[in-house]
Amino acid sequence: MSWSSSTMIACRTLILMACVALLTACAAQSVAPPPQQDIPVAFDNVSAPGGQWPAQEWYRDFGSDELDTFIDMAAKANTDVETARARVAQADARARQAGAAILPKVDALGTANYFSGHSSQGGGHELDWSAMLSASYEVDFWGKNRATANSARLLAGASRADRDAIALTTLAGVASGYFQLLAVRERLEVAQSNRSAAQHLLEVVQARFDVGVASPIDLATQKAALDMAQIAISDLQQTEVEARTALAILLGRPPEQFEVKGLPLDSLREPIVAAGLPSELLTRRPDILLAESNLRAGHADLIAARAAMFPSLSLTASGGVQNPALPATVLTIAGVGPSFALGANLVQPIFDHGKLKAQRDEVQAKNLELLAAYRASILAALGDVENALAAIQHLDQARDYQLENVAQSERAFEGAQARYQAGSVDFLTLLEAQRTLYAARDQFIQYKLARLHALVGLSKALGGGWNQSQAQSTASQTTTRNTGS
Description:
The protein is of the alpha+beta class. The chain contains nine helices and four strands; from the N terminus they run H-H-H-E-E-H-H-H-E-E-H-H-H. It has two domains: 1-30 and 106-139 and 312-347, no CATH class; 33-102 and 141-311 and 354-484, Outer membrane efflux proteins (OEP) (Up-down Bundle).
Protein backbone atom coordinates (compact mmCIF):
# COMPACT_ATOMS: atom_id res chain seq x y z
CA MET A 1 0.00 0.00 0.00
CA SER A 2 1.49 3.43 -0.97
CA TRP A 3 0.95 6.59 0.94
CA SER A 4 -1.56 9.09 -0.42
CA SER A 5 -0.59 12.50 -1.75
CA SER A 6 -2.14 14.18 1.30
CA THR A 7 0.11 12.11 3.53
CA MET A 8 3.19 13.15 1.56
CA ILE A 9 2.16 16.79 1.77
CA ALA A 10 1.74 16.46 5.50
CA CYS A 11 5.21 14.92 5.79
CA ARG A 12 6.78 17.73 3.82
CA THR A 13 4.96 20.27 5.97
CA LEU A 14 6.18 18.62 9.15
CA ILE A 15 9.79 18.50 7.90
CA LEU A 16 9.63 22.16 6.85
CA MET A 17 8.23 23.20 10.23
CA ALA A 18 10.93 21.20 12.03
CA CYS A 19 13.69 22.87 9.98
CA VAL A 20 12.27 26.31 10.72
CA ALA A 21 12.04 25.39 14.37
CA LEU A 22 15.66 24.26 14.46
CA LEU A 23 16.81 27.49 12.84
CA THR A 24 14.69 29.46 15.28
CA ALA A 25 16.19 27.60 18.22
CA CYS A 26 19.71 28.33 17.00
CA ALA A 27 18.80 31.98 16.81
CA ALA A 28 17.79 32.08 20.48
CA GLN A 29 19.10 34.84 22.64
CA SER A 30 22.76 34.36 23.50
CA VAL A 31 24.00 34.46 27.05
CA ALA A 32 25.17 37.95 27.92
CA PRO A 33 28.80 38.43 29.00
CA PRO A 34 29.45 39.45 32.59
CA PRO A 35 29.53 43.18 33.27
CA GLN A 36 32.81 45.03 33.28
CA GLN A 37 34.46 45.41 36.66
CA ASP A 38 36.76 48.26 37.62
CA ILE A 39 40.21 46.68 37.85
CA PRO A 40 43.24 48.61 39.18
CA VAL A 41 46.10 49.19 36.78
CA ALA A 42 48.70 47.58 39.06
CA PHE A 43 49.03 46.02 42.49
CA ASP A 44 50.14 48.27 45.32
CA ASN A 45 52.70 46.07 47.03
CA VAL A 46 55.04 45.32 44.14
CA SER A 47 58.20 47.24 43.43
CA ALA A 48 57.84 47.05 39.65
CA PRO A 49 54.98 46.19 37.27
CA GLY A 50 54.86 42.88 35.49
CA GLY A 51 56.48 39.69 36.68
CA GLN A 52 56.30 35.96 36.29
CA TRP A 53 53.13 34.11 37.20
CA PRO A 54 53.50 30.82 39.07
CA ALA A 55 53.96 27.69 36.99
CA GLN A 56 51.27 25.05 36.84
CA GLU A 57 53.35 22.82 39.11
CA TRP A 58 54.40 25.73 41.30
CA TYR A 59 55.03 23.54 44.35
CA ARG A 60 58.04 21.89 42.70
CA ASP A 61 59.95 25.16 42.94
CA PHE A 62 60.38 24.63 46.70
CA GLY A 63 62.88 21.88 45.93
CA SER A 64 61.40 19.13 48.10
CA ASP A 65 60.91 15.72 46.51
CA GLU A 66 58.85 14.61 49.49
CA LEU A 67 56.50 17.57 49.11
CA ASP A 68 56.13 16.81 45.39
CA THR A 69 55.20 13.22 46.23
CA PHE A 70 52.66 14.30 48.83
CA ILE A 71 51.00 16.76 46.47
CA ASP A 72 50.77 14.15 43.73
CA MET A 73 49.13 11.82 46.26
CA ALA A 74 46.65 14.51 47.29
CA ALA A 75 45.74 15.28 43.68
CA LYS A 76 44.72 11.64 43.22
CA ALA A 77 43.30 10.62 46.59
CA ASN A 78 42.09 13.70 48.46
CA THR A 79 38.43 13.16 49.34
CA ASP A 80 37.39 16.75 48.58
CA VAL A 81 38.96 16.54 45.12
CA GLU A 82 37.31 13.17 44.47
CA THR A 83 33.96 14.63 45.51
CA ALA A 84 34.47 17.57 43.16
CA ARG A 85 35.28 15.20 40.29
CA ALA A 86 32.05 13.33 40.92
CA ARG A 87 30.13 16.61 40.85
CA VAL A 88 31.70 17.40 37.47
CA ALA A 89 30.49 14.06 36.09
CA GLN A 90 27.00 14.81 37.41
CA ALA A 91 27.01 18.29 35.82
CA ASP A 92 28.14 16.84 32.49
CA ALA A 93 25.30 14.34 32.60
CA ARG A 94 22.78 17.11 33.36
CA ALA A 95 24.15 19.15 30.46
CA ARG A 96 23.66 16.21 28.09
CA GLN A 97 20.12 15.73 29.40
CA ALA A 98 19.27 19.40 28.82
CA GLY A 99 20.86 19.38 25.38
CA ALA A 100 18.73 16.40 24.34
CA ALA A 101 15.58 18.55 24.56
CA ILE A 102 16.76 20.65 21.60
CA LEU A 103 16.50 17.75 19.14
CA PRO A 104 13.47 15.64 18.21
CA LYS A 105 12.71 12.56 20.28
CA VAL A 106 12.21 9.26 18.48
CA ASP A 107 10.66 6.18 20.10
CA ALA A 108 9.89 2.67 18.94
CA LEU A 109 6.59 1.20 20.07
CA GLY A 110 5.24 -2.29 19.73
CA THR A 111 1.80 -3.38 21.03
CA ALA A 112 -0.28 -6.52 20.88
CA ASN A 113 -3.85 -6.99 22.18
CA TYR A 114 -5.86 -10.19 21.92
CA PHE A 115 -9.65 -9.95 22.18
CA SER A 116 -11.98 -12.87 22.65
CA GLY A 117 -15.66 -13.05 23.52
CA HIS A 118 -18.81 -15.24 23.41
CA SER A 119 -22.53 -14.54 23.53
CA SER A 120 -25.77 -16.14 22.52
CA GLN A 121 -25.15 -14.78 19.05
CA GLY A 122 -21.87 -16.59 18.76
CA GLY A 123 -18.19 -16.12 19.60
CA GLY A 124 -15.20 -14.37 18.13
CA HIS A 125 -11.63 -13.36 18.69
CA GLU A 126 -9.19 -10.83 17.26
CA LEU A 127 -5.47 -9.95 17.56
CA ASP A 128 -4.67 -6.27 17.18
CA TRP A 129 -1.00 -5.35 16.94
CA SER A 130 1.24 -2.54 15.78
CA ALA A 131 4.94 -1.77 15.21
CA MET A 132 5.43 1.98 15.08
CA LEU A 133 8.11 4.65 15.14
CA SER A 134 7.08 7.94 16.71
CA ALA A 135 8.85 11.31 16.76
CA SER A 136 8.04 14.36 18.84
CA TYR A 137 9.56 17.80 18.89
CA GLU A 138 8.88 20.98 20.83
CA VAL A 139 9.39 23.93 18.52
CA ASP A 140 11.76 26.26 20.35
CA PHE A 141 10.42 29.53 18.95
CA TRP A 142 11.34 31.55 22.03
CA GLY A 143 14.64 29.83 22.87
CA LYS A 144 13.50 28.20 26.10
CA ASN A 145 15.08 24.82 25.40
CA ARG A 146 18.23 26.37 24.00
CA ALA A 147 18.58 28.61 27.06
CA THR A 148 18.04 25.66 29.39
CA ALA A 149 20.73 23.71 27.56
CA ASN A 150 23.09 26.70 27.72
CA SER A 151 22.45 27.01 31.44
CA ALA A 152 23.28 23.36 32.02
CA ARG A 153 26.41 23.63 29.88
CA LEU A 154 27.58 26.70 31.79
CA LEU A 155 26.86 25.02 35.11
CA ALA A 156 28.99 22.11 33.96
CA GLY A 157 31.79 24.60 33.33
CA ALA A 158 31.18 26.08 36.76
CA SER A 159 31.47 22.61 38.26
CA ARG A 160 34.87 22.19 36.59
CA ALA A 161 36.00 25.56 37.89
CA ASP A 162 34.82 24.58 41.36
CA ARG A 163 36.81 21.35 41.07
CA ASP A 164 39.92 23.29 40.04
CA ALA A 165 39.45 25.77 42.89
CA ILE A 166 39.13 22.92 45.37
CA ALA A 167 42.21 21.23 43.92
CA LEU A 168 44.21 24.46 44.16
CA THR A 169 43.12 25.00 47.75
CA THR A 170 43.92 21.39 48.62
CA LEU A 171 47.40 21.45 47.08
CA ALA A 172 48.18 24.74 48.80
CA GLY A 173 46.91 23.21 52.03
CA VAL A 174 49.24 20.23 51.59
CA ALA A 175 52.22 22.53 51.07
CA SER A 176 51.30 24.71 54.05
CA GLY A 177 50.64 21.66 56.22
CA TYR A 178 53.96 20.11 55.24
CA PHE A 179 55.84 23.30 56.09
CA GLN A 180 53.89 23.58 59.32
CA LEU A 181 54.98 20.08 60.32
CA LEU A 182 58.63 20.83 59.54
CA ALA A 183 58.46 24.06 61.52
CA VAL A 184 56.91 22.32 64.52
CA ARG A 185 59.71 19.77 64.47
CA GLU A 186 62.33 22.52 64.40
CA ARG A 187 60.57 24.31 67.23
CA LEU A 188 60.57 21.03 69.12
CA GLU A 189 64.33 20.75 68.64
CA VAL A 190 64.77 24.29 69.94
CA ALA A 191 62.56 23.49 72.93
CA GLN A 192 64.61 20.38 73.66
CA SER A 193 67.78 22.41 73.38
CA ASN A 194 66.29 24.95 75.77
CA ARG A 195 65.44 22.14 78.20
CA SER A 196 69.02 20.89 78.01
CA ALA A 197 70.28 24.40 78.71
CA ALA A 198 67.83 24.69 81.61
CA GLN A 199 69.01 21.35 82.97
CA HIS A 200 72.65 22.40 82.71
CA LEU A 201 71.88 25.72 84.36
CA LEU A 202 70.00 23.91 87.14
CA GLU A 203 73.11 21.87 87.82
CA VAL A 204 75.14 25.07 88.07
CA VAL A 205 72.60 26.68 90.43
CA GLN A 206 72.46 23.48 92.48
CA ALA A 207 76.22 23.46 92.83
CA ARG A 208 76.26 27.10 93.88
CA PHE A 209 73.42 26.42 96.30
CA ASP A 210 75.29 23.52 97.83
CA VAL A 211 78.22 25.79 98.68
CA GLY A 212 75.92 28.52 99.96
CA VAL A 213 76.41 30.96 97.07
CA ALA A 214 72.96 30.66 95.45
CA SER A 215 69.72 31.27 97.29
CA PRO A 216 66.81 28.81 97.61
CA ILE A 217 64.78 31.21 95.47
CA ASP A 218 67.29 30.89 92.64
CA LEU A 219 67.18 27.11 92.86
CA ALA A 220 63.35 26.97 92.93
CA THR A 221 63.08 29.45 90.06
CA GLN A 222 65.40 27.39 87.87
CA LYS A 223 63.53 24.19 88.68
CA ALA A 224 60.33 25.95 87.61
CA ALA A 225 62.07 27.08 84.41
CA LEU A 226 63.03 23.46 83.70
CA ASP A 227 59.44 22.38 84.25
CA MET A 228 58.20 25.07 81.86
CA ALA A 229 60.68 23.87 79.24
CA GLN A 230 59.33 20.35 79.60
CA ILE A 231 55.74 21.60 79.31
CA ALA A 232 56.65 23.44 76.10
CA ILE A 233 58.07 20.19 74.70
CA SER A 234 54.90 18.28 75.53
CA ASP A 235 52.72 20.93 73.87
CA LEU A 236 54.86 20.90 70.72
CA GLN A 237 54.81 17.09 70.60
CA GLN A 238 51.01 17.20 70.61
CA THR A 239 51.07 19.89 67.93
CA GLU A 240 53.39 17.73 65.84
CA VAL A 241 50.97 14.80 66.04
CA GLU A 242 48.04 17.01 65.04
CA ALA A 243 49.98 18.51 62.12
CA ARG A 244 51.00 15.07 60.87
CA THR A 245 47.43 13.81 61.18
CA ALA A 246 46.04 16.81 59.28
CA LEU A 247 48.57 16.28 56.52
CA ALA A 248 47.70 12.59 56.22
CA ILE A 249 44.00 13.39 55.90
CA LEU A 250 44.75 15.90 53.15
CA LEU A 251 46.54 13.13 51.30
CA GLY A 252 43.45 10.95 51.57
CA ARG A 253 45.05 8.32 53.77
CA PRO A 254 44.67 7.28 57.42
CA PRO A 255 47.08 8.92 59.87
CA GLU A 256 48.18 5.60 61.32
CA GLN A 257 51.69 4.55 60.24
CA PHE A 258 52.07 7.80 58.32
CA GLU A 259 55.65 8.99 58.38
CA VAL A 260 57.19 12.22 57.17
CA LYS A 261 60.95 12.34 56.79
CA GLY A 262 61.18 16.09 56.45
CA LEU A 263 64.09 18.41 55.83
CA PRO A 264 65.21 21.56 57.66
CA LEU A 265 63.36 24.65 56.53
CA ASP A 266 66.65 26.22 55.49
CA SER A 267 67.14 23.47 52.88
CA LEU A 268 64.01 24.53 50.99
CA ARG A 269 64.16 26.95 48.10
CA GLU A 270 62.05 30.08 47.98
CA PRO A 271 60.46 30.22 44.53
CA ILE A 272 60.48 33.52 42.70
CA VAL A 273 56.81 34.34 42.22
CA ALA A 274 55.60 37.71 41.05
CA ALA A 275 52.21 39.10 40.12
CA GLY A 276 51.50 40.46 36.67
CA LEU A 277 48.70 42.86 35.83
CA PRO A 278 45.56 42.72 37.96
CA SER A 279 43.42 42.39 34.83
CA GLU A 280 45.15 39.10 34.02
CA LEU A 281 43.99 37.75 37.36
CA LEU A 282 40.46 37.37 35.93
CA THR A 283 41.64 34.55 33.66
CA ARG A 284 43.94 32.89 36.22
CA ARG A 285 41.60 32.20 39.12
CA PRO A 286 39.19 29.25 38.91
CA ASP A 287 36.92 30.77 41.55
CA ILE A 288 36.37 33.82 39.31
CA LEU A 289 35.46 31.54 36.40
CA LEU A 290 33.12 29.71 38.77
CA ALA A 291 31.30 32.94 39.65
CA GLU A 292 31.26 34.04 35.99
CA SER A 293 29.85 30.72 34.79
CA ASN A 294 27.15 30.82 37.45
CA LEU A 295 26.26 34.35 36.38
CA ARG A 296 26.01 33.36 32.71
CA ALA A 297 23.92 30.33 33.64
CA GLY A 298 21.63 32.58 35.64
CA HIS A 299 21.13 34.80 32.60
CA ALA A 300 20.27 31.73 30.52
CA ASP A 301 17.76 30.69 33.18
CA LEU A 302 16.19 34.12 32.90
CA ILE A 303 15.79 33.66 29.14
CA ALA A 304 14.10 30.31 29.75
CA ALA A 305 11.83 31.79 32.42
CA ARG A 306 10.70 34.56 30.07
CA ALA A 307 10.18 32.11 27.19
CA ALA A 308 7.97 29.94 29.40
CA MET A 309 5.39 32.75 29.38
CA PHE A 310 4.91 32.46 25.59
CA PRO A 311 3.05 29.78 23.61
CA SER A 312 4.66 26.38 23.14
CA LEU A 313 4.16 24.28 20.02
CA SER A 314 4.77 20.52 19.98
CA LEU A 315 4.81 18.43 16.80
CA THR A 316 4.32 14.68 16.72
CA ALA A 317 4.54 12.10 13.96
CA SER A 318 4.26 8.34 13.95
CA GLY A 319 4.40 5.69 11.28
CA GLY A 320 4.65 1.94 10.94
CA VAL A 321 2.62 -1.17 10.36
CA GLN A 322 -0.42 -2.33 12.34
CA ASN A 323 -3.47 -4.50 12.31
CA PRO A 324 -6.07 -3.25 11.78
CA ALA A 325 -4.54 -0.69 9.43
CA LEU A 326 -6.70 2.10 10.89
CA PRO A 327 -8.46 1.49 14.21
CA ALA A 328 -11.00 4.14 15.04
CA THR A 329 -14.25 4.60 16.85
CA VAL A 330 -16.25 5.40 13.73
CA LEU A 331 -14.28 3.85 10.86
CA THR A 332 -11.93 0.89 11.04
CA ILE A 333 -9.92 -0.36 8.05
CA ALA A 334 -9.36 -4.03 8.60
CA GLY A 335 -6.22 -5.92 7.63
CA VAL A 336 -2.52 -5.38 7.99
CA GLY A 337 -1.13 -2.21 6.45
CA PRO A 338 1.03 0.86 6.89
CA SER A 339 -0.14 3.60 9.21
CA PHE A 340 0.88 7.24 9.57
CA ALA A 341 -0.24 10.04 11.88
CA LEU A 342 0.64 13.70 12.35
CA GLY A 343 -0.23 15.96 15.26
CA ALA A 344 0.39 19.43 16.60
CA ASN A 345 -0.25 20.83 20.05
CA LEU A 346 -0.24 24.55 20.84
CA VAL A 347 -0.40 25.69 24.48
CA GLN A 348 -0.56 29.27 25.72
CA PRO A 349 -0.62 29.94 29.48
CA ILE A 350 -3.51 32.30 30.25
CA PHE A 351 -4.17 32.23 33.96
CA ASP A 352 -1.92 30.48 36.50
CA HIS A 353 -2.29 32.81 39.50
CA GLY A 354 0.96 34.56 38.57
CA LYS A 355 3.10 31.42 38.85
CA LEU A 356 5.18 32.00 35.71
CA LYS A 357 5.66 35.67 36.50
CA ALA A 358 6.78 34.79 40.02
CA GLN A 359 9.24 32.27 38.61
CA ARG A 360 10.65 34.93 36.31
CA ASP A 361 10.94 37.39 39.19
CA GLU A 362 12.74 34.76 41.26
CA VAL A 363 15.27 34.17 38.48
CA GLN A 364 15.79 37.94 38.11
CA ALA A 365 16.51 38.23 41.82
CA LYS A 366 18.85 35.26 41.59
CA ASN A 367 20.71 37.06 38.80
CA LEU A 368 21.28 40.04 41.09
CA GLU A 369 22.68 37.68 43.71
CA LEU A 370 25.01 36.01 41.18
CA LEU A 371 26.15 39.41 39.93
CA ALA A 372 27.08 40.44 43.46
CA ALA A 373 28.87 37.11 43.96
CA TYR A 374 30.83 37.64 40.73
CA ARG A 375 31.97 41.08 41.81
CA ALA A 376 32.79 39.76 45.27
CA SER A 377 34.97 37.01 43.80
CA ILE A 378 37.01 39.59 41.87
CA LEU A 379 37.45 41.79 44.92
CA ALA A 380 38.40 38.79 47.03
CA ALA A 381 40.99 37.73 44.46
CA LEU A 382 42.54 41.19 44.37
CA GLY A 383 42.56 41.26 48.17
CA ASP A 384 44.25 37.84 48.36
CA VAL A 385 47.05 38.97 46.08
CA GLU A 386 47.56 42.27 47.88
CA ASN A 387 47.70 40.54 51.27
CA ALA A 388 50.19 37.95 50.03
CA LEU A 389 52.39 40.58 48.36
CA ALA A 390 52.30 42.77 51.47
CA ALA A 391 53.19 39.80 53.68
CA ILE A 392 56.22 38.95 51.56
CA GLN A 393 57.30 42.59 51.42
CA HIS A 394 57.10 43.04 55.18
CA LEU A 395 58.82 39.72 55.83
CA ASP A 396 61.66 40.79 53.54
CA GLN A 397 62.05 43.95 55.55
CA ALA A 398 62.15 42.01 58.82
CA ARG A 399 64.71 39.40 57.74
CA ASP A 400 67.80 41.27 58.97
CA TYR A 401 66.12 42.10 62.28
CA GLN A 402 65.19 38.47 62.83
CA LEU A 403 68.75 37.29 62.19
CA GLU A 404 70.21 40.01 64.37
CA ASN A 405 67.76 39.19 67.16
CA VAL A 406 68.89 35.55 67.26
CA ALA A 407 72.59 36.44 67.09
CA GLN A 408 72.39 39.02 69.87
CA SER A 409 70.26 36.75 72.05
CA GLU A 410 72.82 33.94 71.75
CA ARG A 411 75.63 36.35 72.59
CA ALA A 412 73.75 37.72 75.59
CA PHE A 413 72.98 34.26 76.97
CA GLU A 414 76.54 33.03 76.56
CA GLY A 415 77.88 36.13 78.29
CA ALA A 416 75.33 35.99 81.12
CA GLN A 417 76.04 32.30 81.69
CA ALA A 418 79.79 32.86 81.90
CA ARG A 419 79.39 35.82 84.24
CA TYR A 420 76.94 33.97 86.46
CA GLN A 421 79.37 31.12 86.88
CA ALA A 422 82.01 33.70 87.77
CA GLY A 423 79.63 35.29 90.24
CA SER A 424 79.46 38.72 88.56
CA VAL A 425 75.82 38.52 87.34
CA ASP A 426 72.71 37.76 89.37
CA PHE A 427 70.54 34.79 88.59
CA LEU A 428 67.54 36.76 87.28
CA THR A 429 69.70 38.30 84.57
CA LEU A 430 70.83 34.85 83.47
CA LEU A 431 67.28 33.49 83.54
CA GLU A 432 65.99 36.38 81.44
CA ALA A 433 68.80 35.84 78.92
CA GLN A 434 67.84 32.19 78.63
CA ARG A 435 64.17 33.02 78.04
CA THR A 436 65.07 35.66 75.49
CA LEU A 437 67.26 33.24 73.55
CA TYR A 438 64.58 30.55 73.44
CA ALA A 439 61.95 33.09 72.34
CA ALA A 440 64.26 34.47 69.64
CA ARG A 441 65.02 31.03 68.19
CA ASP A 442 61.38 29.98 68.30
CA GLN A 443 60.29 33.26 66.72
CA PHE A 444 62.84 32.88 63.93
CA ILE A 445 61.47 29.45 63.03
CA GLN A 446 57.98 30.90 62.90
CA TYR A 447 59.34 33.70 60.76
CA LYS A 448 60.74 31.18 58.25
CA LEU A 449 57.41 29.38 58.28
CA ALA A 450 55.58 32.66 57.69
CA ARG A 451 57.73 33.27 54.61
CA LEU A 452 56.88 29.86 53.19
CA HIS A 453 53.20 30.34 53.97
CA ALA A 454 53.28 33.72 52.25
CA LEU A 455 54.85 32.23 49.12
CA VAL A 456 52.26 29.46 49.08
CA GLY A 457 49.55 32.05 49.63
CA LEU A 458 50.83 34.18 46.75
CA SER A 459 50.99 31.19 44.42
CA LYS A 460 47.45 30.25 45.39
CA ALA A 461 46.20 33.85 45.11
CA LEU A 462 47.65 34.04 41.59
CA GLY A 463 45.83 30.88 40.57
CA GLY A 464 48.68 28.39 40.93
CA GLY A 465 49.40 28.31 37.21
CA TRP A 466 45.73 27.71 36.35
CA ASN A 467 44.61 29.26 33.06
CA GLN A 468 41.01 29.85 31.99
CA SER A 469 41.60 29.27 28.28
CA GLN A 470 43.24 25.90 28.92
CA ALA A 471 40.49 24.89 31.32
CA GLN A 472 37.76 25.82 28.83
CA SER A 473 39.58 23.98 26.03
CA THR A 474 39.74 20.85 28.17
CA ALA A 475 36.06 21.23 29.04
CA SER A 476 35.13 21.54 25.34
CA GLN A 477 37.05 18.37 24.49
CA THR A 478 35.37 16.53 27.35
CA THR A 479 31.95 17.73 26.23
CA THR A 480 32.66 16.59 22.66
CA ARG A 481 33.70 13.15 23.86
CA ASN A 482 30.64 12.88 26.09
CA THR A 483 28.33 13.96 23.28
CA GLY A 484 29.91 11.48 20.91
CA SER A 485 29.43 8.67 23.36
